[in-house]
């Protein structure tokens, strides 16, 4: 979940903090660029154009941070001061694209920012009522905006990782040409499947075309799924709706430990079968065995 708008510790993106407590979050990580988003009981307001500080209290029931915890957030990135979305967004690529833990994502991103700004020693200047806000310091006193940047903190389990394993990486290499001996229709399908794993190809257009082709694409998609962990393959099989994919999808679920892929496989199985057995591969195998015996 991302909040990138204006606000304070008791309001985020114009949403009052107490309203956030009405949410139900499941396995959510909140990246909040709102000022004071990680502060639970106070905020520092500026009272004039010079950013003179005045501390104001936040009632617990109005706290953005506490209400997101109440709603079930696993963790939150937020600032303890006047901040900006760019100060929180730095941790997001390491978290979701590289599979870093919450703590690693924050620590590594902050260290990179400090190095790039050429800061040798970081001293966090405190907020004091009646004095100028550290957020208003110039480049000479806060190179690279480190005063603001270093006030982004993590609330939650620092060891939590969004994926149980690092996501499989598809090599950026030229895809093999389709077998020229294949009929034109099959050549087209194999070419589209190759595009799904080509970072330079229009992958979503290829996915949609495979779904449009339908049942003719099912056997080569199943064959590709045996060695390829690209989530778009089970996505296509689920959308096509051909029950020949049920057994291979169950086998893929049993063989995979990568969370995003497993979720797409489960979604495809639910769509094909009308069953809701979650990510339990054994339960799916038992159900499928009974289903096949019933058909016999």
How would you characterize the overall build of this protein?
The protein contains 13 helices and 9 strands. The chain is α/β, with parallel strands linked by helices. The protein folds into 2 domains: 2-156, no CATH class; 184-295, no CATH class. The strands form 3 sheets. A 4-stranded mixed beta sheet has the order 1-5-8-9, sandwiched between helices. A hairpin with a 2-residue loop joins strand 2 (7-8) and strand 3 (11-12). The longest helix is centred in the middle third of the chain and has 15 residues, at 102-116. The chain starts with a strand and ends with a helix. The model has no long low-confidence stretch (mean pLDDT 85).
At a glance:
The protein has 296 residues and is an alpha/beta fold. The chain has helices at residues 17-20, 64-71, 85-89, 92-97, 102-116, 146-149, 184-196, 203-213, 218-225, 232-240, 246-255, 259-273, 281-295; strands at 2-3, 7-8, 11-12, 15-16, 29-32, 42-46, 53-57, 75-79, 152-156. The chain has a four-stranded mixed sheet, sandwiched between helices. Strands 2-3-4 form a three-stranded antiparallel sheet. A two-stranded antiparallel ribbon has the order 6-7.
Number of strands: 9
Strand content range: 5-15%
Residue stretches low in confidence (pLDDT < 50, at least 5 long) are none
- How would a crystallographer describe the biggest sheet? 4 strands, mixed
Overall number of structural domains: 2
What is the mean pLDDT? 85
Helix and strand pattern: EEEEHEEEHEHHHHEHHHHHHH
The geometry reads as elongated
End-to-end C-alpha gap:
47 Å
Percent in helix: 40-55%
Broad structural category: alpha/beta
Tally of individual helices? 13
Rg over alpha carbons: 25 Å
Please, what is the oligomeric state?
single chain
Which strand order does the major sheet show?
A: 1-5-8-9
